[in-house]
Prior knowledge:
This protein is of the alpha/beta class.
Amino acid sequence: xxxxxxxxxxxxxxxxxxxxxxxxxxxxxxxxxxxxxxxxxxxxxxxxxxxxxxxxxxxxxxxxxxxxxxxxxxxxxxxxxxxxxxxxxxxxxxxxxxxxxxxxxxxxxxxxxxxxxxxxxxxxxxxxxxxxxxxxxxxxxxxxxxxxxxxxxxxxxx
Length: 158
């Protein structure tokens, strides 16, 4: 269901909130964005990025998992939940989908991490991702490398 369909849903906002929940993070790219990691991708509130951070897609995020609504966190803890992360920067857009996990805390105050594995820590926002940093569109990565502003939208569908 598209956002437009949700807005015109005759059942109203209560039905909408039962279907999906969303968190939006604003961040920016950095000259050291490489997006080469094979099992994770990350967005961080840190204001710097060293070349070693090969999973980091954006820095200076205005929010971290600890800022997410409790209802959002609860929905992410359902193993059958579908969680998608969409990153938009410099006119390019990429989405990756994974799933929820009962151990997701989403309590980290610095970074949001997506994982292709089932490993969970306080930074993890989804597991079983279709791909990691290395799988992101190279035009999007180049826009991030040039410092483009980024919008990161995380949607959970229970």
